[in-house]
Amino acid sequence: MITDTLAVKVESLRAVFRPMRTAMVAFSGGVDSTFVLKVAHEMLGHRVLALTTTSPTMPENDRQSALTMAREIGARHLVIESNELEIRGYAQNPVNRCYLCKHNLFTVCDGKARELDIDVIVDGLNLDDLHDYRPGIQAATESRVRHPLVEAELSKAEIRELSRGMGLPTWDRPASPCLSSRFPYGTEITLDGLRKTIGASGKTDDQVAWLLLSVGVETLPENPTRADLKAAMETMTVDQALRLDALLTDESVPGSGEAA
């Protein structure tokens, strides 16, 4: 059910897009950017373009989600291959890795926006993200990318609720960080390492994400340790905790061998 407060926030979000002549959404196909694209398309129609960059660091199900959701919304969608491993310094996996990635993304967006005469670039940053360690925000600021969800003061939980009300299948989708986040900072990211990570992820990893999401755990560090996950288990039921513990001790789960 959409409360009066949420209805006001949705109208505020629409008001962000209303005066725009054209807009580009940096689109991953996740919960936030899908909601942004839905509302932007509602307000601007063909004058909004979704842009997705794909890379070896992007999980395949994320790429498929982006393609599917843009198609279901009916928005124009541009997909560009952009290998983050070719970004200077990225493969060394520094603590500002996300800045390097976002800087590259917004550079691609800016180039295409200029080429296609698009006025504004927006992303899916939400209000909760401002309280996390997100070096990518600096890249957005440098590229003058707007954050409509922040402007409308929408939290992650509110975005999920509104997405469900709009019938978006992404409303309950677990967080899906890039594959590079499986590598501890300072550990070199290689194609071979990414392939191994892809092979180790899948249903088992999705089960872990689902368990964390089911108890409202969405504020874990970007590279959670076993200690972080164990702490999250304290809020779970006994059955959930036992299931997650079994998954964490499974050698196929990335990070299962980390010291607590």
Describe the 3D structure.
- The protein is α/β, with parallel strands linked by helices and 260 residues long.
- It has 2 domains: 4-172, HUPs (Rossmann fold, 3-Layer(aba) Sandwich), CATH 3.40.50.620; 179-248, no CATH class.
- It has 11 helices and 4 strands; from the N terminus they run αβαβαβαβααααααα.
- Helix 3 links the parallel strand 2 (48-54) and strand 3.
- The longest helix is centred in the middle third of the chain and has 19 residues, at 97-115.
- The protein is globular and about 45 Å long.
Name the poorly predicted regions.
Answer: 200-207, 248-260
Structural class: alpha/beta
Write down the overall geometry.
globular
**How much is the average pLDDT?**
82
Which sheet architecture does the biggest sheet show? 4 strands, parallel
The tally of helices reads 11
The CATH architecture category of the largest domain equals 3-Layer(aba) Sandwich
CATH class of the largest domain: Alpha Beta
Q: Which range best describes the helical content: under 10%, 10-25%, 25-40%, 40-55%, 55-70% or over 70%?
A: 40-55%
Strand content: 5-15%
User: What is the CATH superfamily label of the largest domain?
Assistant: HUPs
Strand arrangement, major sheet = 3-2-1-4
- CATH fold name of the largest domain, please? Rossmann fold
**Termini, distance in Å?**
41 Å
How many strands? 4
